[in-house]
Design goal:
The chain has 3 domains: 5-77, Beta Barrel (Elongation Factor Tu (Ef-tu), domain 3); 81-364, Rossmann fold; 375-471, Bovine Mitochondrial F1-ATPase, ATP Synthase Beta Chain, Chain D, domain3, CATH 1.10.1140. It contains 12 helices and 22 strands. The chain has helices at residues 134-137, 158-168, 198-210, 234-248, 260-273, 287-295, 324-332, 341-345, 375-399, 406-423, 433-444, 457-471; strands at 5-7, 11-13, 16-20, 29-34, 40-48, 52-57, 70-77, 79-82, 90-92, 108-111, 122-123, 128-130, 142-143, 150-152, 170-171, 187-196, 217-223, 252-258, 299-301, 307-315, 335-338, 358-359. Strand 16 (187-196), helix 3 and strand 17 (217-223) form a beta-alpha-beta unit. The protein is elongated. The N and C termini lie far apart (86 Å).
Length: 480
Amino acid sequence: MRGVEYRGLTRIEGPVVITERSRDVGFNEVAAVYDRNEGRRLGRVVDMSGDWAAIQIFGSTTGLSADDSRVEFLGKPMEFRVGPGLLGRVFNGLGEPIDGYGSILSSTCLDVNGLPINPYARTYPRDFIQTGISAIDGMNTLIRGQKLPIFSGNGLPHNRLAAQIVRQAKILSGPGSGDAGPGGSQFVIVFCAMGVKYDVARFFLDDFEKSGVLANVVVFLSLADAPSLERLVTPRCALTAAEYLAYDRNMHVLVVMTDMTNYCEALREVSSIRGEVPSRKGYPGYLYSELASLYERAGKIEGSSGSITQLPILTMPNDDISHPIPDLSGYITEGQIVLDRELFQRGVYPPVAGLPSLSRLMKDGIGPGMTREDHKDVSSQLFAAYSKVKQVRSLASIIGEEELSENDKRYLKFGETFERIFLTQDEHENRDIGRTLDLGWQVLAEIPRDELLRIKQEYIEKYLNPALAAAGKEAPAEQG
C-alpha cells in the first residue's frame, strides 16, 4: 500500500541503505527516509530482490540509525516540474530552484528518466548550425539534432569554447528552422554542470549574462561540494527540461553538459558501493548503456518543429582518448571535437585537433542551399593536406628540415599557415561560413595546385584566385 512507512533499516553502506522490500516497489522509484529527528532525505531505488530494496540517498547518510529510521516508498519515479516560466531559472542538481524565485507555477511534472524515442519517429538531422568557429564549421560541422561531444583535458579551454558556441550558434538552413540564434525566441540553452568548481559555474553564468542570453537559458548546477550521487540525477533533470522546451514548446534547444567524466566517476562510486563486478578501469559494465540513456535523448522528432542538440564536455584522464569514457562516448555520439594540448601550448585557440576530430553528420548538412557548393571539397582537401603535414613533421624530426624535398617544405609552410590563419581566432570573433571557406582557400594556396586532388577544377577556378586576390597574393603557377 502506497504511503505506508516501514520502520528500520537492514544496513547502511555509505550513501546506500538496505531495507525490507515493500510490495510493488519499482526500480528508480523515489523513497523518503526519515531519521530520529524527523529529517527527510530523498533517494531512489537502485536495486532490489524479493526481500529487500537498496535505496541510494541523494546526500549524506550521517546521523541515520538502522533501528530508528523510517522508509516511505512514494510510488512514483523522480519528477521535474516544467512550465512556461522555465527559461531564465537556476536549479540545483535535483531540479530544485536555487535562484530565490520559488517553484515553477505549473502542475506538469515529467519523469526525469524520460522515455525511449521510437526510431521510426526520428527525423534525420540535416540543418547546418553555424558556430562562427572555423575549425568546427569548416571541417567538423555541427548539425541541428546532433550530439557532438568535446573531448578535452585538464587545463584546456573547453569551457571558453563551449561558451563561445552558445553565444554564436545560429541555425542557417532547413525547412521551418528559421534563422534563430541564442538571442532569439526559438534557440534556447539548457546548461548542466556536474561536479564542477564554483568558478567554472560562475564563468558560464557571467558569460550568459554579458552576452544577453541569460533569459533564454535554463541552468542546472551540481557543484563539486554537492553530494557526488546528485550528479547522476542532474543531467536527467536537464534533459527533461530540454525535451519539454523542444517537443512541447517547439523550440530549438542546445544542451551543454559538463563534465561527463564527473558523472561517470559518480556512477563508478555507486557501482563499487553495491559490490558489482567492475569492468574496464573499475567502471561498471553498464557504463555504455548509462551514457546512451543520456546521449540518445537528443534529436528531432516527426510532428515537432523543435529539436535537441547536445554538446557534452568530457575531460579525458591523462589526455587518453582510449579511456573508457571518451571511447564509449565516441561509439554513441556522431563524432567528437578533440582539443589538442600541443596546439594549446603553442598559443592556438581554439586548439581543435585536425585529424582526431570529426562530425559524422557533416556530409548531410553542407553543400548547395545549406552552406556553399565548395564546402565538402575544401574540407576534404584540408583534412588530406593536414594529414600530409603530420607525416612531413614526423619525417623532419628524424632527418632534419633541411633534408626535406621542396614539396615537403611547402607542406610544412601550409601547416603553419593553416594553424595560424584558419584554426586560430579570437574567442569573440564570429566568422560566417563564407569567411571560413575563403580562409580555407587562402591556406590551400600554399600547396601546389596539382596537389588539390580532392577539389573539382571548376571550384579551383571560381574560388582560389578571388581568395588570393583578397589576401594580396598571386595565383600559384600550375605544377607540371
